[in-house]
## 1
Amino acid sequence: PRPILLTRHGESQDNVRGRIGGDSILSEAGEIYSKKLANFIKKRLKSEKTASIWTSTLQRTILTATPIVGFPKIQWRALEEINSGACDGMTYEEIKRNMPEEYESRLKDKLRYRYPRGESYLDVIQRLEPVIIELERQRAPVVVISHQAVLRALYAYFADRPLKEIPQIEVPLHTIIEIQMGVTGVQEKRYKLID
Ligand code: F6P
């Protein structure tokens, strides 16, 4: 069995402000997480000869991976957060106030709702296909540092959760989800590194 470790980036400045999307850097708590994560990975993958660290192309995931040393890092555009198009950079409150129809449509069908000039969860699931194929092909452990919507979709794939649940799956910050693929099926552990 080989592990796949899934985690969101450390808390970003936009997370603190409640703004979606964007390309902000880490908050202080996010930086602390990046160091704790590096420590955790060092111990967890101590006995592994090879492993790789996958991030998106957004700063917050690259910065979260920075303290990790000794393993190759790969950036994937396909691991970028759901594209919130016209709503990028807004808070949920601002969307509700300024674009009430958009807000309502998303509430009604979060899986299929597509942001104006952006993506839906279904779009994200589709663009993740090459990432999943490559993840399945890997023999060594992979650490995936990505974003909330993307990790919901990846997690659902490995944990065999139904499509309709995906937009609601809990993927908290500062938590590592370890997935073990064995002959007997999939096992899961969660490690919370900061409260
Ligand atoms: O708030 C963090 C974030 O990653 C946003 O960038 C993104 O739009 C959102 O979460 C996705 O979560 P939800 O689909 O619940 O809005």
## 2
Amino acid sequence: MKKEFVVIGLGRFGGSICRELTRLGMDVLAIDKNEDLVTEYSNIVTHAVVADSVDESVLKSLGIRNFDHVIVAIGDDIQASILTTLILKELGVKRVTSKALNEYHEKVLRKIGADQIVHPERDMGKRLAHNLVSSNVLDYLELSDEHSLVEIAANSKIDGHSIIDLDVRARYGVNIVAIKREANVIVSPQATEVIRKGDILIVIGANADINRFEVKML
Ligand code: ADP
């Protein structure tokens, strides 16, 4: 189903969201106060508008309420990011995702009702660190301060072993919740499932346990 998005702020982060959403066939309204950027994006997205997002009347006149999802990708101007998020929630936008620069910024965004808060630099740094420690770690999603979900590529060390053989739950306290094998996904694999080299294991658990599994197992 085609969804309608608004991206406010066309820096590197917002710009990249615009391009990818468009590539995925979505309708995108791009907003920035910088005219040059808006001109650049007018050839890429469905609509591009020069506007200052802290001006409530402008957002209203753009019919912002009718969009499915608004992404506040304002970079350094924390005040503008907070005020924009606040106005969007006051206008009744259902889903607002805002970019936070630091923990204080995140706290305020949460308080004023942002539905999703992203920290691209911090999160990418964490992901990269896991991938640097173990090149088998393909992706890493923090579920809470203590728990994560990671994608780990199975290498030759565990090729041909079943989940029960490896005894991951008892030895490491983590669970393999799914296995991606070529085009298939085996959800909730049986303990007897044999892992093959090249499988991607989706593992859930406490961070400390996952780290032990990452470092020792592979
Ligand atoms: P990034 O780190 O993603 O490159 P930037 O700070 O370079 O972030 O980009 C943020 C963008 O947000 C800039 O293009 C800036 O013009 C835009 N922006 C900042 N404040 C507002 C605002 N109040 N209304 C509209 N656009 C804004």
